[in-house]
Fold this sequence. Notes:
By secondary structure, this protein is mainly alpha-helical. It has helices at residues 13-33, 37-43, 48-76, 78-98, 102-114, 118-128, 135-164, 169-189, 210-217, 223-251, 255-284, 286-305, 317-325, 354-383, 390-419, 423-442, 452-461. It has 17 helices and no strands.
Amino acid sequence: MSTPVAPAEKLDFKKIFPVFIIVLIDLLGLTIIIPLMPLYAAKEGASPFLIGLLGAAYPIFQFIGAPFLGRLSDRFGRRPILLISQVGTLLGFLILGFANTLWLLFLARIVDGLSGANISTAQAVITDSTTEKTRTQGLGLLGAAFGLGFVVGPVIAFLSLAASGNNYHVPAFVAAGFSLVSILLTYFWLPETLPAEMRGKSQKKAGLTLDAMFQALRHPQVGMLLMLMFAQQIAFGGFEQLLSLFTLNRLGLNASGNSIIFVFVGIIVVVVQGGLIGPWSRKFGDRRLVYLGLGALAVGLTLTALTPRQPMPSYSQAALQAELSTRDSGRGHEMPTTTNVAVDLPPDTNKGWLGLGWILVAMIPAAIGGGMLQPSLNSLITKRVERAEVGGMLGISAALLSGANAVAPLLGGAIFQALGASAPFLLGGVVLALLLLAATRTMKPGREEASPASLARGAGAH
C-alpha cells in the first residue's frame, strides 16, 4: 500500500487561490504602468537622472510605509491593512491619470508608495496559510501572479495606447479600474488569515522604528538574508527601473515595443514561480536556489549590457522623436517640449533583428534568477522566525527591498547619464557575481535544513 502525501507537505490551493487572484488583479494595474513610466517622464523632457528619481519616489515612500503597515497587520489582521494599501494604490493611479506635469507624476508615485504594503501583506497571508514545507511554493505563486501580470499588463497597456492614439493617460485610468476590482474582491472574498489570538504577540519587540530594522539585521538567523535581499536588489532594481530607458536608447523601442520585452519576461517568471520553484525548493533547498538566482542574474545583466545597438527594420528615428515630443492637448499655452528628447535615440542606419534577439536571450537568465531570488529569500526568512514575527519581518524585508529600489534608480540613472546606457547593467552583473561569492561563504544552513529525525524530535518536544 502506498503511503499518502502528508497534508503538511501539500499546498492547499483552496486557501491560496483567493489571494493569488486578488494580487494578480492588483498587479495588473502596476504592470500596465511599469513599461510606461520612464517614457511618460521622457515626454516631459526629463533627463535619465530625473527619470531615475521618479523611479525612486515609489520605493522611498514604500520604505517609510511598509514596516508600519506590516506591524499593523500583525496587530489588527491582514485583511484591513491590505484594503488600506489598495485604496492608496487606487488614488495613486487616479492622480497619474490626471497628471499633466512632472510634479504630478511624482505625487502619484509618492501616494502609491506610502500605502504600498500590498505585496508584503499578501506574503503574510500566504505564510498564515502554508506550512514550512509548502511556504516557498506558496510565496512563489505570488511571484507567478507578478509574472502573469507582466504578461497581461503590458498587453493591456499596448491595447490602451493603440486605442487612444498613444495617450499615456488612458493606461493609468485602466490601471485604476483594476485596482478598484482588487479592492472589491478583497472586501467580499478574502477571509482573515491571522487568528485573533495570534495578533499583537510581538508587541514587546521594537516595532515602528528604525531600531526594529537594525534589530532584524542583527538577528542571527535572518540578518544575512535581509542584507542579501537589500544588496541583490541594488543591482536588480536598477535593471527593472531602467530597462525601458535602455531599450529606448539601444533599440529605439517605444512603450508599445517595450511590451514585447515585459511579456517575454513575464512568461518566464510565470513558468519559474508558478511551476518550477516548488519542486526546485524541495529538491535543492532555498539556500541553493538563492545561489542559483544570483548566478543567473549576473549572467543576464551582463548579457543585457552587451546588447548591440540595432533598432528593428521598421524603426524611424523621426517618428519616435515626434511621438516622444508630443504634448498633451489643451496645453498650448505652455512652452512646447524641445525637439531633442533627453535620451539619445539610435540612428536609422544599421537596422536589423540582432538587437531585439540578443536582449530576448539575455532576459532568459535574468528572469529565471529574478524569479527564484525573492521567494527563496523570503521563504528562508519566514522559516527562521516565530510566527508572531512573520508580518513584521516581511514588512522589514519589503522595506529593505524598497530602500534598494530607491537607491538603484538614482545610482543607475546617474551612471546611465554619465557613463552610458550599458554601464548600470554591467556594474549590476559584477555586483551580483560578488554577492554570489559572498553568499556561498557566509550563508549558513538553518533549522530548515535539519535532518528529518531532528525535525521530528523538535516537533515532539512541542
